[in-house]
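Q: Predict the assembly, please.
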Amino acid sequence: MSLVKRPSSAASWYLPGILAGMAFTFRKMIFNLFHQKKMLTLNYPEEQYQYSARFKGNHVLTVKKDGSIRCTACMLCATNCPAQCIKITAAESEDPSVEKYPIAYEIDVLRCVYCGFCEEACPVDAIRMGPEWQTAALNGSKFAYDIQQLAYRPQLRGGVVSVLDEDERHHAGI
Amino acid sequence: MPRITINGKTVEVKEGSTIIQAFKESGQDICHYCWHPGLSVAGVCRLCMVQIEGMPRLQIACNTEVKDGMVVNNTSDTVKETVRWGLDFHLINHPLDCPICDQAGECGLQDQYMKFGSYDPEMAEKKVKKHKVVDLGPTVVLDSERCILCSRCVRFTDEVSKTHELGIFNRGDRSEIGTVEGKPLDNKYSLNTVDICPVGALTSKDFRFRQRVWYLKEGDTICSGCSTGCNVKVHFNEEGVWRVKPVYNKEVNGHWMCDEGRDTYKHVNLKVRMQAAQVGQSGAWQLIEPAEALRQVGPKIRDLAKTGKSDKISLLITGQYTNEEYESLFKMAKELKISKAYHWFNKAKDKDNFDGILLRGDRNPNTHGLLDAAKAHGIQLGSLEQFSSGASGAEMAIVAGPEDFAHFPELESILKAAAGAKLLVWLSSGVPNGLSEVSCETFAIPTKTYIEKMGSFTNHAGLKQCFKVATTIVPQALNLSEICELIQGRELNWALRPKAVGGAKANYAIAEQGAL
Amino acid sequence: MQESKLLTEHYNKPDFTSLAGYKKYGGYQVLAKALKMEPKAIIEEVKNSGLRGRGGAGFPTGTKWSFLPNNGEPRYLLCNADEGEPGTFKDRLMMERAPHQLIEGMVISAFAVGSKKSYIYVRGEYDHSIAVLRGALKEAYDAGFLGKNILGSGFDHDMDVYQGAGAYICGEETGMISSLEGLKGQPKLKPPFPAIQGYLRKPTIVNNVETLAAVKYIIRDGAAAYRKYGTEKSAGTKLFSVSGNVVKPGNYEIPLGTPLKDVIFDLCGGLKPGRTLKAVIPGGSSAPVLTAEESMKATMDYECLAQMGSMLGSGAIIVIDDSNSMVDLLDVIMHFYHHESCGQCTPCREGTGWLAKIVHRIRSGAAEPKDIDLVEKVSKQMMGKTICALSDAAAMPAISFVTKFRSEFEAHMQKTRSAVGGSAHA
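A: Predicted assembly structure:
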């Protein structure tokens, strides 16, 4: 026995469907005109949704108290990244207490899946997923974020300072 | 031949060998750091503890000689407990900075801790601070905090290089490896200390921070640096080759290789390579597929041969190619009746130098093979001087040039001399200086380097060692055999050609592409 | 009770240090006698006397001498005068009061083992001992007791004094050999043992000052007379350096097997008034401590102390009364071993430092009861795991202190914790 139901002749006549749809749309429109508070959508970009603080948005490279970048170029984030969107070039720092630091750190956010594994892999709290979610640009090259963009973009107002210092890390057993 | 029982398995070992050697031979796991098969026994890490039946105390396997009928185990609870604690003792003052340590991924301490460690450290004290980033010499950097004082490097400079630069200074947990002031670690074998360092205390300046080792793949090959023919492995990824390390071969190089041999990866990477054939003259180049260039130049050579002008072609050959390539080259020479062949022997007067350990004055991997092949084909090889004086006015010069330019200081003058011919076919892996000044008609064809081809080198002692393709850096490059085929008008099986490895990171193509 | 003065009989006579004075009391007569004997007979005599090494390990001296291989290689005799064990000061007395006694004993021993060259390795800080020994050596050379053809016997022997550089580990025989060879003072792997390959990779015998000096008296009086002192297995007399909370500290020569109670309360005049005995370390700082109760039962010989889980060691008796804190004492001892570990073997290099840090933390009040267990655990893992015995020497007192005086450690923690306002790790 075939389970396929043949379309009824009424269904092949499309006008009732369109009218029903339009009726629904107009009903909502009129409802919204008079009950703007109860409206489910936002008037983006004039109105913007506030996500929770734990939202995983665009990446931020944290900085130390002196403003220098915290990342040690250990490449654990790049190793862990399922989208392979992180590219780091390490170099020897002048400061022997730092030893290794990235001279280039690039995240291809178009490739990024915003999973947050980089944040979890980082042993020194150098990368965090920030609250920003409006990622737009006019050019493909703008989506490869470099250190300048990741750590010092104007929205961050001088960078996110990681408050952990070495003694705190020692006490926390990190 | 004493027979001993290791963890219930009976093995027969050589007279006078130690228990740890018996363990290694029977393929059983044993934790150790300070013992190295190429060095004397120090017995200081105290990790190769074994229980020997009839002995009240645990013994170290590296200093206990095997006796017939010995029953040994390292799987009892006492031994396991001891090894666990031994590892903890190693780690209590170790900084555990694996994320920024270059050794991470190939570190003895990491590996052994994963296998034998206690996973529950009880150390709650402040660690001892020692010197970091100590410049030991031109090639090696020391981090004393990571050092576990196994003394392998000290023993290496005492026993193998015999240069005695390193020592352990101070006592107790303040002990540090160091050099005497004014005497840096500077010898031709210094980087072996980095290889044998089981932790990240000694790092090579050349490789330091360049790559994480887990991104690298390994490929075995033969070092092309000199006629010793050390067995090596190259470490590479899609960006190129990053370092060369020795592979144990009792007959040739033992456990070691020289620092110069470790530089042989530098001429294989993309930046210094000729990536397409350069056809033209005086720097006005047309860049084309190498095979296409050979399809153009092949008929010219064959025409010369047909018209009986083969004696106007001179062939100059370096000792940097494989036996198989020489075979094809000389076969082609015979077929085209080219009789004027010359041997480009660089630094010929140093050819018999030997430093007593590994490095030889003949800086070609296969001079022996070249001479053998020429002899087998009855070709008399002329000298470099004869080539220089006879090249001008010739119809054509075919130069199977060097792969590693570092050992060819006379490169430019030879290029100039070869340009005296009416047509120059120049084969080399890189672009030599002065190529753009060559005024005759030139076909510069990129050749493969030793890591990109398979074949064999015959070393100074006549030992023939085969090797396989490790990786491909320039997919268009050809080896001599392929070049000979194309010159003779035969086609290659293009389906079998290697493809470029560097295909990953395709997402960057978007960035380079610009507007979406 | 009285001392049985055999070696120290003439120590109170001021002219005993000079050759003339020494000869007055029968000096070098035994040497003349010995040189007429067969070397094998001397070794046999020493074996029969039951003399055991006085440096700490208590290995039978005659047996040690018979380990030398017969391969015609030159042999060396080394006198271990690197007296570094905290609490010990007997060798210094012997060198300063009776240098010729040592030289005579050494020449006899060298003759017995067939050595043509010997060294006295003296602790670096013993400047005065070295000066006295050097003076005595010169006198002995001038008088023909050293050098070529000694006393017309055809036996040649040269002797030298070597000043150490102040490392405790150079008192360990192979460490001493390394130091003497001009290397860093670190013990060597055994096997090969020094009797097979020692100084300059040649057969070498290393003996303590007191052992070598005692050889003279064994040859003088015969093995049987020597055996009259002491017990069956621990024969002879021994010098004990008594220090700590007793009225009359000092060096005492008594037969082995004397009850410790008699030494403390009779010979040394007991404790200061109003004090009670808390503990005794019977054999230098590396010997496990005895509680007051145990020490009342102990006799000073190798077997009894071994049975009680301690050791005779170098014979340094450190008496501790109730005015001292065991926590402070252990802190000092652990600091010493941390400072003196040579750093070769990992368990010792890292373990001594670790122990020192834990105990220091306990003392300063930032510890919890589980840290006491940790001291015990770490110490246990340091025992018998290294090339030499320094690791054991650090671990043994640590274990004995925290097990036998655990309540005191806990009380200390309770007290200091309330004083500092809680543990830092709590």
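The radius of gyration of chain A is 25 Å. Residues 72 and 96 of chain A are 12 Å apart (CA to CA).
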